[in-house]
Design brief:
The chain has 204 residues and is mainly beta. 9% of the residues lie in helices and 27% in strands. The chain is built from three helices and ten strands, in the order H-E-E-E-E-E-E-H-E-E-H-E-E. The strands form two sheets. Strands 1, 2, 5, 6, 7, 8, 9 and 10 form an eight-stranded antiparallel beta sheet that branches. The termini are far apart.
Length: 204
Amino acid sequence: MLGFSRSPKKETETFDPVEAVVRLAELNPASALVDLQPAPGAGSAAKLGKSSFLRQYRQLYRDGSSFYLTTPDGLKVDQQPLLQSGKATVLLQFLHQQTPVKVECLVLGRFQLLPELVGTLDFKVKAAFKLQSLSPLNKEERRKNLRFTVKNYGDSRVSLTSQIHFEVYLKNPGSVPQNRSPGGGGGRAETGPAGTTAADRPPA
C-alpha cells in the first residue's frame, strides 16, 4: 500500500478590528470620502460626500475597536435611517502621503457624545457616527514616478536642486535598423545605381 502524506493546512489570518483601528490611528487621517455600500445585487454605491474623523489632541479618537465620523456633507434625508440602523456598510477613502487608502466599515449607529468628551475634541460636535472596521486597510500603490528625500548635510542656506540624472546608452548597436537613424528618425538612406548610397557616389 502507498501512503500519502497530506500537507498541513495553512492557517488563515483572522481579522482583528482592534488592530485595524490601531493602524488607522497610525495614519491619522483628518477626513475621508464616504460611499454607502449597496446590498448584494442592489446596484452601485451611493456617494455620501466628505466626513471628518473625530480627533482628540490632534490624534484619531478611538473607543476600543471603534472610531467616530461626523455626518457626511452629502448625506440625504432618506439615507439617514439606514446609517442609524446599525446595519449599513460604508467604504472610506482617504490619502496618506499621496497614496489612496480604502477601508470597509460597519456603521454601528449615530450616538450623542458625552459633554466631558466634547470638551476634549479638536472641534465641537455633539453627535457622531460610530464605525468599526470590517477589513484591513488597503493601500492602492499606483506609483508612476520616483520618490526621494533631499537632505542637505552642508550649508542649510544653500538651496538644493531636486533632480535625478540618468545616463542612457545603447547596449547592442547592431539592433538599430540600418535604414533608420539611431535617434529614431524615419529618414531612409538615399540609394543610387547598383545599390550605392549618396555617400559612395562621387560629387556631380
